[in-house]
Amino acid sequence: MNTKSILSMLAGLMLVAAPVAAEAHGSMKPSHGGIVTMSGEIMVELVRGPKGVDVYVTEEDEPIAASGLTAKITVTADGAKRDTPLSPQNDNRLTAAGLKIPVGAKVVVSLADKRDGDKTFATFTVK
Fold this sequence. Notes:
This protein is of the alpha+beta class. It has one helix and nine strands; from the N terminus they run αβββββββββ.
């Protein structure tokens, strides 16, 4: 085989493998109408609502039990920074009841696994 045919075969294999690699980390579509970001293998969805803020945590489309996490949300807006604990709810939902996040705020969700202490940080800019 010559170099040209080897390169052609490799290019073809890459085209076939690319869609599989793109889906390997699960969907990046929000499941609850919020905004989504990835932190390593963890997808975090931030949902602002009239009663406060909900955060949903998944890994490769599988929910991560909120009861196994310690979490807080840090909101920086208009030069002020505010930390609020996130309370575990059912399944993969954490809640900060009554918290309002203004448009333009920078938000950091801090998660710590209760078992091993592994930490994950997800950053959002609310538009």
